[in-house]
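Z., the sequence and structure:
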Amino acid sequence: MAVTKNKIDYKLYLVTDRDVLGSRNLVNAVEEAIKGGTTIVQIREKNCSSLDFYQVAMQVKEVTTKYNVPLIINDRLDIALAIKADGLHIGQEDLPLTVVRKIVGEDMIIGVSATTLEEAVLAQEQGADYVGIGSMYPTSTKLDAKPVTFDDLRAIRKAVKIPIVGIGGITADNVSELMETNIDGVAIVSAILGKEDIKEAAEKFIGNINK
């Protein structure tokens, strides 16, 4: 595996959504985002067949491998194993982390979505490599997302040592205030993929994150 788990940069974490892209090509969009500074990519496909997901993931993997950027698969353990992805991201309703770890082994990155301090601490205890915390702001890409306050986020940051990625409604304009909570990165969907110039959108995020 080209990606070393303990050296991963979670700073700008792109989560894909073909609904946001419209008619544009996902693989090209991912490459533009990486050129703009995206440091890690997650493929999230909720409304397609297993074959379609597999084929798209294989195409995206060619791009992420070319740039040595980690590729994470959302939810689908079978797809993550089939394409030899760098990691898998699971939610609270998915297979238990302890079960997933036995199946994928120690080398694969496992991220867990959490909305509470208890969920984040449990994820760390069970061996998660990072936690995704949100929703930090109202978001159109996940309508059932529970809101997380900045105080909640700071409490989680104090309690867990593993990397924290904030997600949900994050824009280039509000990312700086979010990074002040000392989290490791932000997960972005529409604020990059929904823009006409994807590379420029990613560059703007990186600039504001690094301020």
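The chain is about 40% helix and 15% strand. The first strand starts at residue 12 and ends at 15.

Let me know what you think.
H.
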